Amino acid sequence: MSSNAQIVISQFGGPEQLNILTTEIPQPQAGEVLVKVAFSGVNPIDVKTRAGIGWAAEHNKNNLPWTPGYDVSGVVVKQGIGSEKFNLNDMVSGFIGFPLRGGGYSQYLCVSETELALVPEDISLKAAAAIPLAGQTAAQALEKAQIQSGETVLILAGAGGVGHIAVQIAVAAKTKVYATCCEDNKSYIEILGGTAIDYNNPSELEALNHVDVMIDLVGGEAAIKAMACLHPGSRVITVPTITSSMVCSHAAELGIIGMGMLVEPDTVQLEELLGLISAGMLKVEVEQCFAMNEVAQAHLKIESGHARGKILLDMQM
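Above: the chain's sequence. Below: its structure in token form.
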């Protein structure tokens, strides 16, 4: 334990603006622990921030180079004064520094123990890094929609990081679940218990009607077109903040209840999600895990819009 490598945004722009800096390993303050990070999740918000879009970019524009990242898993290697929640060598998972502080793209990270959850021994650290932001976004979107047994739910981008979790939670809630995806992911959606809708085949979406709830993980024109499947009184939860007002305005014109949302880190909820994974009731898909020096490729993968499940960084490679 001699140095700490961190991935930073040097300036806003393309993936080439992501660089690795070496710094000293931080020391935990009171109530904090030092985590040796195993894996860090890569999320669409990281890509938008790197491009200079959104709240985190605006907040940190005069604070570059800045380290992004909100999902982490790893091992507690040092405790600050008064830190009692975890023991040394405990495996932990966290949804940290959201939305402005970030910091997850680090090999070592000091974080308040209140932001972390204990990882059960039967869960891999990959799965533990994949669930915090995506799992809580999926769970909170469905909670906000107040889905009821027997309802029909449409999830846009159902094979993605948030989507594949949302499909499973909605199926477990005994709703009829439809999910948009590409042709290659149709069988995957069926395995999760949903009915796949190929977003490249407009006739499949047009054939769907009287949907009660739509979870919009895409935003923009795709969300507006998909609202043709809904009926007056249906509920739309739209997650992409950039197009939220546009989507909600269009929903109102159709007599549909439109609501935006911003996920809120909740350690108790994270512990519940980890418990579901441990019990075999929730499966987390990790399509690809990139080495630290491949972070640009990881961002390009997210930007392609074709990732199945989550994309991770191996912070020790």
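The chain has a mean pLDDT of 97.
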